[in-house]
UniProtKB/TrEMBL annotation:
InterPro entries: KR_dom, NAD(P)-bd_dom_sf, SDR_fam. The keyword Calcium does not apply. SMART domains: PKS_KR (SM00822). Catalyzes the reduction of all-trans-retinal to all-trans-retinol in the presence of NADPH. CDD domains: 17beta-HSDXI-like_SDR_c. This is Short-chain dehydrogenase/reductase 3. It comes from the Eukaryota. It comes from Anabas testudineus (Climbing perch). It is an enzyme of class 1 (oxidoreductase). It is found in: Membrane. Residues 39-230 form the Ketoreductase domain.
Length: 316
C-alpha cells in the first residue's frame, strides 16, 4: 500500500506535465465539438447585449430550442422574433433573476411549456459604476442579488433535472474584473468575484456527475451598453505631455459581443471549464500573483484602469 502511494506521488508531476502538454496540443488542433441539436438553452438577460448574441449564436450552431429571460419585454420579444425567423424555436419569459420566488415559478412554467432546460447560461448582470461611498445601500444590494444570488436560484431551479438526466451544462458569463477589480465599480467586482467562486466550487462539485459540466467565461471590456463611457489607456503624464491613450489607442480595444458569444458557444461545445477573453488576460492573473503592489499600481495607472470609471455613463 505504501509503495503504491509512493509511486503515485512520484508519478504526480509527470501526470501534471502530461495534462498541460495534452491541453496545449488540443487547443491547437480542431477538437470534437458537442452536438447541440437536442439542447434546450436558457439565457438570462437574453434580450440584449452579450445575451442577445449568445441566443443567436446558440441558434446558429444548431440548438433545438432557445429560451430568453429578462425584465424588458421589448428586447426579449425582438430577439425571440429574430431567432424564430431564422428557424429555431424561441420563447421568452419575463423573469427578474434577483427574485427567488419568481425564478422558481418561471422555471416551472418553462418546464411545463417548453421542456427540460439542458444548457443554462447565467448572463444577466448590472453595474452601477460608483464608489462605495457614492453608492446607496439599495444599489449595492441589488447588484449582489442580480449578479451573484441570481445564479444560485437559477442553478438550483435547473441543475437537479440535469443531474437526473445525466445531461446538462451550466455556463456563467463572468468578467476579468472578478480577478482584477477596478475602483468605481466596487459592487460589480465583488459580485463577479463571488460568482467566480460559485462557479469554481460548482465545477469541482460536479466532477463526479457524468454528463453535466460547467463553463465560466471571463471576458475583458466588451462593446455593449453596460460599461458605456468607460475609457481605458488614458494615463496622462502631464509633465511630459504624454497620453497612453494617444500612444496606444488600439492596444486593447473592447471585444465585440458577437465574438464573446461565438467563443462561449465553442467553449461549451468543447466542454472547456474556463475561458479567458482574450487569452492574454491569463498574463494579468499571473502577474498579479507575484508582482509587488507598487508595480501593480503602476500597471493600473498606465493602463488607465485606475481612472477608467471616471467617464462611465453605463446603460442610460
Ligand atoms: N460589457 C462588458 O464590458 C462586459 C465585460 C465582461 C463581462 N460582462 C458580463 O457579460 C454579461 C452581459 O453583459 P452585457 O455587456 O451584455 O450587459 P447589458 O447589455 O447591460 O445586458 C445585461 C442583461 O442582463 C439583463 N438583466 C439585468 N438585470 C436583470 C435581472 N434582474 N433579471 C433578469 N435579467 C436581467 C438585462 O435585461 P433587462 O434589463 O431587460 O432585464 C440585459 O439583457 C454580464 O454578466 C456582464 O457582467 C460584460
Amino acid at each position: 500500500m505504501e509503495l503504491k502511494s509512493a509511486c503515485r506521488m512520484l508519478l504526480f508531476p509527470v501526470q501534471m506535465f502530461y495534462y498541460i502538454v495534452r491541453a496545449s496540443l488540443f487547443s491547437l488542433l480542431p477538437s470534437r465539438r458537442k452536438d447541440l441539436s437536442k439542447e434546450v438553452v436558457l439565457i438570462t438577460g437574453g434580450g440584449r447585449g452579450i445575451g442577445r448574441h449568445l441566443a443567436k449564436e446558440f441558434a446558429k450552431q444548431g440548438a433545438r430550442k432557445v429560451i430568453l429571460w429578462g425584465r424588458t419585454e421589448k428586447c426579449l420579444k425582438e430577439t425571440a422574433e429574430e431567432i424564430s425567423l431564422s428557424g429555431t424555436e424561441c420563447h421568452y419569459f419575463i423573469c427578474d433573476v434577483a427574485n427567488r420566488e419568481e425564478v422558481y415559478k418561471q422555471a416551472k412554467v418553462v418546464r411545463e411549456k417548453v421542456g427540460d432546460v439542458t444548457i443554462l447560461v447565467n448572463n444577466a448582470a448590472v453595474v452601477h459604476g460608483k464608489s462605495l461611498m457614492d453608492s446607496d445601500d439599495d444599489s449595492l444590494l441589488k447588484s449582489q442579488h442580480i449578479n451573484t444570488m441570481g445564479q444560485f436560484w437559477t442553478t438550483k431551479a435547473f441543475l437537479p433535472r440535469m443531474l437526473e438526466l445525466q445531461h446538462g451544462h451550466v455556463v456563467c458569463i463572468n468578467s476579468i474584473l472578478s480577478q482584477s477589480p477596478i475602483p468605481g465599480a466596487i459592487d460589480y467586482c465583488t459580485s463577479k468575484a463571488s460568482s467566480l467562486a460559485f462557479m469554481e466550487s460548482l465545477t469541482l462539485g460536479l466532477l463526479d456527475c457524468p454528463g453535466v459540466g460547467c463553463t465560466t467565461v471571463l471576458p475583458f471590456h466588451t462593446n455593449t451598453e453596460m460599461f458605456q463611457g468607460m475609457r481605458l489607456f488614458v494615463y496622462n503624464c502631464c509633465h511630459l505631455g504624454i497620453s497612453t491613450y494617444n500612444m496606444f489607442p488600439h492596444l486593447f480595444p473592447p471585444l465585440k459581443p458577437e465574438v464573446v458569444a461565438q467563443r462561449t458557444v465553442d467553449a461549451v461545445r468543447a466542454d472547456k471549464a474556463f475561458l479567458y477573453l482574450p487569452w492574454t488576460m491569463h498574463a494579468l492573473v499571473i502577474l498579479k500573483s507575484f508582482m509587488p503592489q507598487v508595480a501593480l499600481e503602476e500597471i493600473h495607472k498606465f493602463s488607465g484602469t485606475y481612472t477608467c470609471m471616471n467617464t462611465f455613463k453605463g446603460r442610460t
